[in-house]
Every structure is written in C-alpha cells, then in structure tokens.
Amino acid sequence: MRKALVDKYGRQLNYLRLSVTDRCNFRCYYCMPEEGVNFVERKELLSYEELGELTELFTRLGVNKIRITGGEPFVRKGIMSFLEHISKNKKLDQITVTSNGTLSSLQMEQLKRLGITKINISMDSLDRQRFFKMTRRDRFDEVYQCVLDLMAAGFEIKLNCVVADGQNISDIVPFIELTKHYPLSVRFLEEMPFNGKDSFEIPQWNHIAIFNHIEIHYPHLMKLQDEANGTSVNYKIPGYAGSFGIIPSFSRTFCGTCNRIRLSATGELRTCLYGPPATNVRDLLRSGASMETIENEIIAVVAAREKDGFAAEALTKRSPKKSMSFLGG
Question: Could you give the domains of the chain?
C-alpha cells in the first residue's frame, strides 16, 4: 500500500511550502523588526543535500507541488543549483517560488530554462514612499521593473499585497487598475501575527472590509471560479486583462480544504502555519534516523493535524509568534 500524507479528517496533503533561508534583504514591518533580527547560524540551516533528500521523501509521500520560500530565497548562495536539482524530480508537477522581486536577469533566465514560470512577488504598495515605509528599503523601482520583466518573459505572476489600516489602503484601487493592462493576479491578504513581536492587533481590514471597499469602486466585478484547495477568493473586472483575489489569511475561512505542509529552513515541520512545529526533520536526519523512520514520523504528525488554524493556534497561545521570514509563509 502506497504511503500518503492524510490527516484524521481525510484531507490529503500534497503541497509543500519549503523555506530555504530565514534571511531577507527587506525588513517589511509585518514580517520582522527593523533591527535586532537574530538570524540562525548557517550550520543550523538544512543543507542543500538535506533539502534534496527531504524533497525526494515528500514526493514519495504524494507531494506533487512545491513552493520555494524564505525569507528571500534568492539571497541564499547556490539556490539556482538546488532548483535545477529538484526540477529533475519526475514526481513533481509544479515548482513555484515566492520572492520580494529582487531577482537578477540571469536568475530569471535560469528559472525559465528550468520550467519554473509561476512566481509570487510580495509587493505591498505602488507608491514609492509607502513602499519604502513598509519594506524599510528604497527598492521600489527595482521590484516594479522586475515584475514587468518577468511578465515580458512569459512568467505567470501573482502580486501579494498585505493590506493594513493606516498603511496602504489607498493602494488597493491602483493595484486593481494594474490588472487592466497586465495579465497578472493581485491578491490582497489580511495581515497576520507573524512579525517576530509579542503583540498583534486583530486587523480591521479583514477580507470582508477589503471586498466592500473594492465593490464600492467596482460594482460590476465578476466572481471567478476558485482553484481547488486554494486560499484566494478570486474576481475580475470585466474587460481587464488580469484578475484579483482576496486571501482571508487571518480569518482562515479556507482551512477545511487546506492541503499544505510547511518545512522551515531549520527543519521545523508544521502542519499549520498558526500551529507549533510538529517535529524537526533536520534533527532526525542528523541523529542518523533512517528515511523510513523519518517518513513514519511525518505521516504520524500529519495524521494528528488539527481541524483548522484556530485549533492549531490554541496550542501556541502562550508563545510569541515567530517572524514569517523564519516560518516560510
């Protein structure tokens, strides 16, 4: 009988979010503090050899889609060689990447050659000053040009915009207007409590508020069919080239169909972004555990997965939330 990652509610997990680094060349306020970030030592990171072994293991267990995340994946030296390695895995139907848009032209060419053509770019404003305020880095022109270059090269682009009161509400309509001429998807995300601090205020701009704001400006918006197991509720303005979606990342209305499992760059395995690490596969690997032992451990923790993100979060109520750069969103 073939082994698979199935939880106690019968949901099969076939989508791995694989973080390759906790480092980033931005300091987005909702992700990490501006200063005093304690990055892990390099020896604590999973090596590319270990990441390759684990990729093989997960695909044997039915994972057929991997998203490479960070931190910022492209700040880790050797990332392109690793992507080339896993692109040869015949069990993978899709490899995608999340980036902050600071890719080089050479990296774009290499990604295209490897068939990795679906890229998510985190971009929270189309205004240079607001972009600087939110990212704490003056690199708007570089990121915007990267988006244009990727589209011109035939990449399928999704822009992820974290919506926050007092920060970028005035960017919502300009982002939708960007879809008028460009065949990209903009996704508006609720803010989440993963900024590396102890405090977090429940976002006023939840998915309902975001939708109501958009509907005022676009009363004739059109609902699109959502992807199976997707997190985004998707829409389109008639006549526009692209589309937009709203992701209730804090409200967690999509938990019932979640098919994701997350592996941090230090080996922490999470069956829910909001929950605690279920095990550490780096430690298992380095202790000399066999692949069969590690497989069985992963199968067991998936089987024990909580029903939704609220139940998972209840297990970590007394613990401060780690930075998203460490978790690998």
Answer: 15-327 (3.20.20.70)
